[in-house]
Amino acid sequence: MLEITFKNIQKNIISVSVILLAIIIPFRSDAQITLKPVILVPGIMGSWNSDVILSNKTGQGTWNFFPLDHTWDNMISALVDAGYVIDETLFIAFYDWRQNNINSAIDYLIPTIDKALLNSPTGKVDIVAHSMGGLVARSYIQSHNYRDDVDQFMMIGTPSYGSSDVYTIWEGGFVPKNWEIGTRFLINGIIDILNVKDITIDDEYDTVHKYIPSIHELLPTYDFLSDSNDNVKPYSSLTEATNPFLENLNESESTRMTM
């Protein structure tokens, strides 16, 4: 059984599509070959279902890419040109990025893997994940429920040690100004809509904590805060802005979590 560990994952982060495609697409001769399925896992806000998200519903329903998000266009086109067929050998694991990553793995990623395995000649799939999608995939691969059905796993821009950017969202409900304007507009809009629909909510802080708990699992696990005198506050001294999820995930190279 292939042991996919955190250290293995860290060594295989690939950010160039050409290199990535060269790895997951086998050498093609004139003879027809059977392709191993590839699953793409979008990052936070990369999956969209307006009925679910804007009404704070639960359930899978029909998900797609956000209409203005073209992050995966080039890669999908390259894979299709190489012979992959959407929903046969190429799958998108859309998920409700508001919920915690373990739930996303159980409710969305594993069912997508099951579909892909129906067309796999090897009993395995390849996974390419972006941003939070990498944490969703790791939540499955590093769990006790892992079925040894992932061959190659590649992450692009996954915050395996968290991101200090999300601190202002989690602790104050403020989206960082360094985020892309479209992303800021979208998440602020979602927060505002949920705020209006729930009369029990007092402010953006409460909205984020109640409706987007996944933000908590993106908090950094390193020293990132300083006091008014610019003295760094050790992560170990924090009592609230901590991230047990990533601490557990990164705890050792052979971590297996309970799902």
Task: Explain what the structure shows.
The chain has two domains: 6-156, Alpha/Beta hydrolase fold, catalytic domain (Rossmann fold), CATH 3.40.50; 164-250, no CATH class. Strand 3, helix 6 and strand 4 form a beta-alpha-beta unit. The strands form two sheets. A four-stranded parallel beta sheet has the order 2-1-3-4, with helices on both faces. It has a two-stranded antiparallel ribbon with strand order 5-6. It is α/β, with parallel strands linked by helices and 259 residues long. The chain has ten helices and six strands. The chain is globular and about 60 Å long. It has helices at 6-11, 17-24, 50-53, 73-81, 101-117, 132-141, 167-172, 181-197, 204-211, 244-250, and strands spanning 38-41, 90-92, 125-130, 150-156, 225-226, 232-233.
CATH superfamily of the largest domain: Alpha/Beta hydrolase fold, catalytic domain
CATH topology of the largest domain: Rossmann fold
Q: Architecture of the largest domain, CATH level 2?
A: 3-Layer(aba) Sandwich
CATH C-level label of the largest domain? Alpha Beta
Number of strands: 6
Order of helices and strands: HHEHHEHEHEHHHEEH
Mean pLDDT: 85
Largest sheet: 4 strands, parallel
Which strand order does the major sheet show?
A: 2-1-3-4
User: What is Rg?
Assistant: 19 Å
Helical content stands at 25-40%
Number of helices: 10
How much of the sequence is in beta strands? 5-15%
Outline type: globular
Ends apart, CA distance between termini: 20 Å
Uncertain regions spanning at least 5 consecutive residues: 1-16
> Given the helix and strand composition, which structural class is it?
alpha/beta
